[in-house]
Amino acid sequence: MFEKNKDKEPDILLTRTLDPFRPAKGSAKVVIGNGVKFKGEITEADDVQIDGQADVTIHTSNLVVGGTGDLKGNITSTNIDVWGNLEGEIKVEGTLTVQEQGTVSGSVEYEQIQVKLGGKIKGEIKSLDKIKKISDIKTKTLQEAASKSESN
Asked: What stretches of the chain show up as alpha helix (H) in DSSP?
């Protein structure tokens, strides 16, 4: 009645979801802890958190530089949240947020930026917004006006 059937194989789907040593699919997170020094490259990580010292090349979706974090290098990310120090060539395809104690320096390109009171940003700072030339806008407006007058 309560006998186990030894011929049955465990449910693979159930085993994968309950395995504590296997992270959930799609979650690639890297954490460099306080007191850790790291030098190298981080790729294919969804989320990166730096609380130690790092001199790296990073391409990620979300980057957090913690209050004890000191990050230098070539950084490309969708969003960056800076509580510590960030220095280098930085490209943010989404939002760069510099918190109250945060410092960002170097060559910075961003789409959106938020600097909280006390946050510092210095260096070559430029927006990724594509700026249209006034002459191009005038030309387009004149062409539209000409086509309207021809149709009337």
From this structure: 12-18, 134-151
Q: Which two tokens stand for residue 100?
A: 């109250």
Per-residue CA distances from 127 to 30, 61, 95, 96 (Å): 28, 19, 11, 11
Per-residue pLDDT tens digits for 45-61: 899 999 999 999 999 99
pLDDT, tens only, 3-48: 555 555 554 444 444 454 455 555 789 999 999 999 999 988 899 9
Indicate the pairing of strand 85-98 with strand 70-82: parallel
Strand order, beta sheet including 120-127: 29-32, 37-50, 53-65, 70-82, 85-98, 103-115, 120-127
User: What does the block give as tokens for 43?
Assistant: 């790729």
